[in-house]
Amino acid sequence: MMTSTADGTTATRNDSRRILVRVGIDVAILCAVGLFMQIFLAVAEPARRGFFCDDESLRYPFRESTVASWQLWWVIATGIPLVVIFVTERVRAEVKTVAEPLQFFRWQVPFWVVEAYKSVGMFGFGATCNHVLTNVGKFSVGRLRPHFFAVCQPVLPDGTSCLNKTLNYGRYIEDFTCSSRTATAHMLSELPLSFPSGHSSVAMYALVYCAIYLQFLLIALGWYTCLSRVADYKHFWSDVLAGGLLGTLTAVVVANDWSNLFKGRRSWKIE
Which residue out of 131, 147, 186, 235 is catalytically annotated? Predict the structure, then answer.
């Protein structure tokens, strides 16, 4: 009995160490990518592009963001995905048989928490990679923002500006300085980082990931239901196959032809 208990304790410690190593590797990889991003942002300089004074695409007014940065990062990029992942994994644990809790030193970690950790980890790694790719694109392209003239108010080396149409219209200007007294240093540093849009990249990554995640889990739940009918001796496999195909075909027809989920909305006409 004593030997069995000792062996069990040793096995638990070994498992706990393996978990710590695995988590440590995950964190190290994530930190390495994040560190690369921080070094890149600190060292790299965006490509300097010129402009034409008569470029109407750069003459839009400066406006505050409809979706603020804190809303993007804390609500869209972090809050919604975390809630979706944790709630989904908890619901999955309620509707299907899951593995036994994982022993981590003195604590028992529910299996759904382990699965949620895996999903959150992959999401976080993908989000970091997406952020890296977005910023590499921004710094490589150096595209000026639509509100460039409003924020920068560029002045040429000879002291003239784009207000002097006879001298500067039609010229491609690369040597200039910003003369605005109201623009902050942050606003000026953001001017050549228009492409690709960081807000768009972060929002679409987070929410498309959630959509695919939920889509996969919903299909997996349907598949689990099909398998349970055979396992419970309620149907033959051919019955389940026929029923599954029938339900899938009906769903596709209704979504595509009746609900118009894949087409533009049709207006209702009352005659």
Answer: 235
Pick from 52, 39, 10, 42: nearest CA to 148? 52
Q: Are 252 and 246 in contact (CB under 8 A)?
A: no
**For residues 145 and 189, what is the distance between their CA atoms, to the nearest angstrom?**
11
Q: Is the CB of residue 194 less than 8 Å from the CB of residue 151?
A: no
pLDDT category of residue 260 using cuts at 50, 70 and 90? low
Q: Residue range 199-215: average pLDDT? A: 92
Radius of gyration of the chain (CA): 28
Concerning whether 147 is annotated as a catalytic residue, the answer is no
What pLDDT, in 10s, does the model give residues 191-205?
Answer: 999 999 999 999 999
Cα–Cα distance measured from residue 40 to residue 196, given in angstroms and rounded to the nearest whole number: 17
Q: Which of 131, 147, 186, 199 is catalytic?
A: 199
Dihedral, CA of residue 160, residue 163, residue 166 and residue 171, to nearest 10:
70
Q: Distance (Å, rounded) from C-alpha 206 to C-alpha 128?
A: 11
**AA identity, residue 172:** Y
